[in-house]
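A reminder before we start the practical. When you read a complex entry, don't treat the lines as separate problems. The point of joint prediction is that each chain is placed relative to the others, so the output describes one connected object in space. Small molecules and nucleic acid strands, if listed, are placed in the same frame. In the example below there are two entries. Take a minute to note the order of the lines before looking further.
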Amino acid sequence: VVTAAELLASAAFAEGSHAQAFPTFGSERTGAPVISFCRIDQRPIRIREPISEPDALLVQDPTLLHQVDLFSGLSSEGYVLINTSRSFEELGLGEFATGFRRERMLTVPATEIAREHLGRPLPNAVLLGGFAAITEPAGLVSIDSLASAIRERFPGKLGDGNIAGARAAHDQVAAQIGGLARA
Amino acid sequence: VLRQLEGSQAVARTVAICRPEVISAYPISPQTHIVEALSDMVRTGEIDPCEYMMVESEFAAMSACIGASAAGARTYTATASQGLLYMAEALFNASGLGLPIVMTVANRAIGAPINIWNDHSDAMSQRDSGWVQLYAETNQEAADLHIQAFRLAEQLSVPVMVCMDGFILTHAHERVDLPTAEQVDGFLPPFEPRQMLDPADPVTIGAMVGPEAFTEVKYLMHAKQLEALDAIPPIAAEFERDFGRPSGGLLRGYRTEDAETIVVALGSVLGTIEEVIDELRDEGVKIGALAIKCFRPYPLEEVREALAGAERVVVIEKAFAVGAGGIVGQNVRLALSGLVSRVYDVVAGLGGRPITRKSLRSLFADVLEDRLALGRLHFLDLKRDVVEREFERMRRGKRPGPHAENILRDIGAVAARAH
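Here is the predicted structure of the whole assembly.
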């Protein structure tokens, strides 16, 4: 999750934006719930407080959905992208989603895509690829800049797999947005 | 070279091109990424010649630095929190001997209760150890200050601490303009030790000094520290000329020209404060900020001059003197003695509690509307109900138990549960 925020910040930086990524700092241990933040702006970023009102929320582990109040602070114009092969309704979030714009409530099976392209269930970069389908039309982070950031961080085969997974997720989410917008 | 990277990496890469010859450190959060990166660069020969000394503790780390510096090597270390306390005895030796060691302090709270998050308790506890203390507002400045720190340390033969907020800066991934080795070489000449353990010309460094001369040696320490107040501004000016951006110096004012209220702070919280000041300025409030960048030596005259026009001064600090009050606040008051300013002492951000724009806005509203009592220490975002409940428990029971655990249980924090 920490790496994901840093990759996103690197991709935004490559496009000329100012970006700030930082984790909620705990005694990091694998498996514990972790939150990481990323701010992107066209001006230098001076704020040093955690993000309490995000424009977009990426959920890497859907088992947290009903354990932690993930959505507090998210505005009705906000985006949600959940790593899951299920729908909002199947996740028990059908009613929740009605408070938001439907075409901004998105899912992508990032863990499965990662398994397919990486051979390992590491959804990090893949989920970001899905997110790029949201940021790209807004002129913020394109899938190509994200791919470059992934390449810089993970050279060789690991990078190839992550990039392929990210592109697959990007295409799926882009199609999903198109479908929901028409609906 | 503009790069997007973690603060710790920016500092490590900058220290590397300052050409340290000896690095000795013991890992502790949130300093770890800095020394990991440096040990790696020594191993791969990226920093060469340089010896990275593995040690068993912070006390040993600083002791090794003292030896290395006395032998004429450019010497660097980094620590935080309990690690800085564990160094305490050696810190006074380094400064007492006048050894130009540069150290990063990745500021973190001090236990008990144990807490790994950011505040300034560690550096503030050693404010009178004879080290120069510089505080970075951003990762850019943290990197830049290390170059200036070596220059200052070696010019005056004094040790220098570069303080950067743990996690908030060390673990933040953001844009930093990394200087090149050529730029640094042009700014920072090779180390010419003022004193050196040299077999060809033997001297004793660290002789015992009795009542006949102890005061004089200490007087010289004080005089040299005060010299730093004159040395820092030209070093910062030269840095700006060579590197094309302002960094360091003694103080930095933000929208203070006609300010009736000035907020004083150290370190990374200034960015958030500036955001709130811009909002309030848009609403017509005459408010500004003053960053103290060099806390030791204390730039008393400069602080006095910078705050002289203000009616109200709000000092926001991430540490305090238990049973006495604000530390920076007391220093600010000293600078303002005889002037009419009203000085408010506010402790904030202890043990990593976020300092938010919302809380700052509410604090400044209280100050501007005279709702905040003068002459007492205020704790930003203090959970009064939690404190009251614990006071009540103390009144009731003969053995109320440990505060930390009681409070964690009261607020339902996971850490209080038995596993």
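Discuss with your neighbour: Confidence is low (pLDDT under 50) at residues 415-419 of chain B. What might explain this?
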